[in-house]
Amino acid sequence: MLEKHSLDFIHVQHAAQRLAGQAVQTPILHSAAIDKKVGAKVFFKCENLQRMGAFKFRGAYNALAALTQEQRAYGVVAYSSGNHAQAVALAAKLFAVPATIVMPKDAPKIKIANVRALGAKVIHYDRLNESREGLASELAKEKKAVIIPPFAHPKVIAGQGTAALEFLTHLPDLDFLFVPLGGGGLLSGTLIAQKKLAPNCKVYGVEPKAGDDAQQSLASGRIVRIKAPNSIADGALTEALAPITFNLIRHYAQGVLTVTDAQLIKAMQIIATHLKLLIEPTAALGVAAVVNRLVPIEGKRVGVILSGGNVDLDDYAHYLTAEVQP
Q1: Annotated catalytic sites, by residue?
Q2: Where along the chain do its domains lie?
Q3: pLDDT, tens only, 175-187
Q4: Does the domain at residues 57-147 carry the CATH identifier 3.30.420.240?
C-alpha cells in the first residue's frame, strides 16, 4: 500500500493546492502525423513549458513551501545536473531563501547560467570522481541548511505528481503512460496520481540504455548502483534509485524500458518537426519508447510526459541535424 511510503494521493492534492497560481498548468498536445507514424493516439504533456523549463519546479516549490520560517532563514542546499538545480534556485528566490546548488562541472552551460541568474550559489564537482551527496551534506552542515534532494523526498515526489494529476484529470482513459526516469521522482509521483485517477493505465518508466540502474534494480529485486553513466540525457544520469522511489516503482510501475542516445536524437527531431517544440534529450525518453514501439501500443491511447526543454542551443542544433537511423 502507498501508506507505507508515507505518500498517498492526498499529498499530491495538497501539493497542487500549494502550486496553484505558481506552477503553469502546461498544455497537452497531439499530432496526427505522430499518430500515423506509431499507429496509436498519442498525447504529450508539455512540461518543457513549465516555469524554468521543466517539471522540477513543481517538486522544488512544494518542498520549500513546507519549510518553517527558521529553516528558510538558514537556506537550502540542493544537488542536480541542472533542472532540479534551476527549480530550487527559482523556488528559493520566490521565498527569499538563500540557496547553494551542487552541480557537475559538465552540466549544460545554460542550466548553470540560469541557476546563477536566479541568485543561487553554484558549487561544482566532478561527477565521475566525487560524491554530490557527500559534498551537499558537508555544505548543509556548515550552513545549518536544509537539503532538498532531486528525488528522494516525499514533498518533491508529491509535487512532481501534480503533472500527472493534471494530465490524467483531462485524459483519464489513457491506456499507456510513458515517463522519463532518472532518480524516479517524476515516475513515483505519476504512479501515485495514476493509481487514483486512471487505475487501468499502464505506466512505464524510460531511462537511457547507458544508465539502466532502475531496470537492473527491478530485475534483481533490490537497488542496483551503477557507475556514473554517459548519455546525452543529462537529466537522467543517476547512479541509483532511492529506497522511496524504488519501492513505489517496484510495486506500481508496469516496467522500465531503455533507449539509446541515437533513439533520443531521432525522437527530438520528431517532436521538433511535428509539434514544433524544443525539448531536451531527457524529455525525449518517453517519446523514443513510443516511436520505437517498445511495447505494443497499436490502436491505444498513449500519454507521454515531456519533462523539460533546457538544452544548450549549440547541442540542440547538432541533434536536429544529426543523421541517425529511424
Answers
A1: 56, 81, 207, 211, 213, 307
A2: 2-55+153-321, 57-147
A3: 999 999 999 999 9
A4: no
